[in-house]
Amino acid sequence: MAEVIVVEHEQAAGELVAESIRALIEAKRDAVLGLATGSTPLTVYQALGRSLSARPLDVGMVRGFSLDEYVGLPAGHPESYRAVIDREVVAPLGLTPSNIRVPSNDLAALPAAGTEYEQAIIDAGGVDLQLLGIGRTGHLGFNEPGSSFASLTRVKTLTPQTRADNARFFASPDEVPIHCITQGIGTILRARHLVLLAFGAGKAAALAAAVEGPVTSSQPGSAIQLHPHVTVVVDEAAAGLLANLDYFRYAWANKPAWQGI
Ligand code: PGA
After folding, report:
1. Cα torsion at 195, 201, 207, 212 (round to 10°)?
2. Which of 3, 17, 79, 182 has the most crowded Cβ, counting Cβ within 10 A?
3. Which ligand 1 atom sits closest to the C-alpha of 134?
């Protein structure tokens, strides 16, 4: 069963996860981070930025692989995930830009882009810690319902629900791309530690299905149940539909001090 930590607010979640990432980098200067975009992980990047300002640490060797990217946006579009990762993660944390990869959405390179991305992750030694949000459809990365648990990085079609959910980042809903390139569920499951964050009541159903529901590709988030090291960090609203909430609180309250997340 995943470890589920219920925190009071997003900032506390960010601080908890940022400290875990910091400890990872302290132990392994060239740690490989799995990066997520969307609103959810921002609190982690901001908390890590504050931590690095208060207590500087050499992060120049840290490597990163983003989960996904839109296909079909003009090059340099500010909402391309390459641009978002550069703006929200690489620049504020002072990471080395060439160490941080995002799947290529270059149309000419697209047929080979998935295979090439998988190889780059393998060549880096695999992802140490993968940050994840969850979509209201239950998606991890952009793996919409029905995505094979064996899937690797490839082009996918976004559901109308996900396009509507992401329309807030664009001038008009029609601007949200229909296609994307995303790490597969199989890719995500290869990471050594999964950290899934969810905030707000809008995520409660998808979160409960991921943590406690049947393991099914109809709920891509439920793939986390196949992974041996998962930490779920949620606020009260996102935790609202968990049947085992009392147990999760009890386990966290009694967690041995020597054990990290
Ligand atoms: P959000 O998206 O963080 O913007 O809610 C999460 C997701 O769709 O995976």
Report:
1. 130
2. 182
3. 9
Stated length of the chain: 261
Nearest residue to 204 via CA among 242, 254, 250: 242
Q: Which atom of ligand 1 approaches the CA of 37 most closely? A: 3
**Residue 16 banded pLDDT, cuts 50, 70, 90:** very high
* CB of 194 closer than 8 Å to CB of 230: yes
How large is the average pLDDT for residues 236-261? 95
What residue spans define the domains of the chain? Answer: 3-230+241-252
pTM for the structure as a whole: 0.97
Per-residue pLDDT at 20 exceeds 90: yes
Q: What are the respective helix, strand and coil percentages of the chain, to the nearest 5?
A: 45, 15, 40
Residue 143 DSSP symbol: B
Alpha-helix runs per DSSP H in the chain: 10-27, 42-54, 81-85, 91-93, 110-123, 160-166, 185-190, 204-212, 245-253
State pLDDT tens for residues 52-101: 999 999 999 999 999 999 999 988 899 999 999 999 999 999 999 999 99
Please tell me the residue having the least CA distance from ligand 1 atom 8: 135
**At a CB cut-off of 8 Å and minimum separation 6, what does 12 contact?**
none
Cα(65)–Cα(100) distance, rounded to whole angstroms?
6
Q: Tell which atom from ligand 1 comes closest to the C-alpha of 162.
A: 8
Q: Which CATH class is domain 3-230+241-252?
A: alpha beta
Ligand 1, residues at Cβ distance < 6 Å: 38-40, 133-135, 139
Which residue has the least CA distance to atom 4 on ligand 1? 38
**257 pLDDT higher than 90:** no
